[in-house]
Known about the structure:
Layout: H1 6-48, H2 56-76, H3 100-112, H4 120-138, H5 144-160, H6 163-169, H7 182-203, H8 220-251, H9 257-275, H10 284-292, H11 298-318, H12 325-342, H13 348-364, H14 367-377, H15 384-398
Helix pairs in contact: 1-3, 1-4, 1-7, 2-3, 2-9, 3-4, 4-5, 5-6, 5-7, 6-7, 6-14, 8-11, 8-13, 8-15, 9-11, 10-12, 11-12, 12-13, 13-14, 13-15, 14-15
Main location: membrane
Subcellular location: Cell membrane
Membrane topology: Multi-pass membrane protein
Amino acid sequence: MFHPRCPNDAAAVAPRADYWRSVKPGFNRLDESRVGFSAISLARLPTSIGIAYDSPFWIVGMLTLTGIVVGLIIRYSPGHAGPDPAIEPLISMPVSPSALPGLLLALIIGLAGGVSLGPEHPIMTINIALAAAFGSRLFPRITALDWTILASAGTIGALFGTPVAAALIFSQTLSGSNDIPMWDRLFAPLMAAAAGSLTTSLFFHPHFSLPIAHYTQMRLVDIASGAIVAAIAIAAGMVAVWCLPRLHELLHRLKNPVLILGIGGFILGILGVIGGPLTLFKGLDEMQQMAFSQTLGAGDYFTLAVVKLAALVIAAASGFRGGRIFPAVFIGAALGLMLHAHVEAVPAAITVSCAILGLVLVVTRDGWLSLFMAAVVVPDTNLLPLLCIVMLPAWLLLAGKPLLAANRHEP
């Protein structure tokens, strides 16, 4: 009745799903801690001393202090709070477990203080390290590479709600053997990603989708409009690609992480004053507030996109521990809403989804994740064929272009 490979597939899937179900509640508590600290730092504490939470003095002071504290953690904690996300890919080799407490603390303080980065890179680093350290002991038959793929797929599925994309990301990594069908190789990562996504939906309810009018019917002109929007988003992202390595090199000439992150926090505070509270934090909740707002116009959306893009570059160049995908989604949404407000004939579903596709493609250089992130934020099945077509010119525009990453400097 069953295929001979079924027992092997089941044996491989079981520890992966159990592992992710066991660690995901801990990361939900991490996010709850971040939310709690955020409420204290930017709501309760300033009002208790008679200062408005959106006061320029408070925003600049809070982000500067956040930078100094994170700098102290990076300088003095074991392992220096893990690798610098600006010079490391999203998925990399496991780090030493001794660096994880400092990394976790730097992540919580940075995100709670309003730094414009997401949690994906540190959480990915922590999950890979834990999977490699404990998984290889509990299930020695599963290799370190398999545990890395498990942790990465589960994290992507949980954070972004895209289990299919999480599995497809590894389609090239797992394509070495011609004897095993592709589905068999992707089945275990898919189950790990699905377990992570399901656990997130049970313990935590992220809201990616925006209240955007339904896209009713595809027209040929919409394909051209979507390609233009994606090209504009890519052009904006390439500005960040040019700035990040140069600013990273300039700041790290100071050598002292406390000084570097203190200066970075101060600049982020100034940007927060210019852009307002919507440009702070990772951008997921702020994206919802922006989309629901009835008072923002094209100029406001443009300001939000520019300030958030600048804050992303500053935060990454300074060495704050965080990821760049969540801010990129916010920037894409702001840019898409701005383009729709400027040219109302182009549906908002097209401008927002294609702008997110372009920005995430610049940041990740991964077509699957970019495509599914756009589809998650604007969940409309009528858009999928259009997004797939728009992906082609967007991918060709980025062919051979540098990544959004800084260069590794010699100490």
